[in-house]
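seq:
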Amino acid sequence: MDSTKLGEILVPGSPEEQERQESRIRSSFFDTVRRALRYIPFMEDVVAAYYCAIDSETPTATRGILLAALAYFVLPVDIVPDFLFGLGFTDDLAVLWAAFNAVRQNIRPEHYERAREALGDLRRSA
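struct:
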């Protein structure tokens, strides 16, 4: 995925758009994580980014970038549709990695702690 396309995806939206993205993400994030678990090697970082994005103490710009990336992740149809076996999450991986690298200094240890707990619960229920 080229950097121009990544830049378009990761633009933080307006406050209203961020609210819509957060609502969409909260409703389907963990279902998507369950489907993508074996395809995204840095899933702990992705789930920590989710907890960072919904944390009210996270800076607004960081929340915007993460919400944009996570909204792209939960959309079932994107540049490479997620249902394509083995390939469907490759574009999501690129978007998530770019977002994570842009804001990693704002993802705190407590976000990682919550991510490890959530992933442990998902793996136990699988």
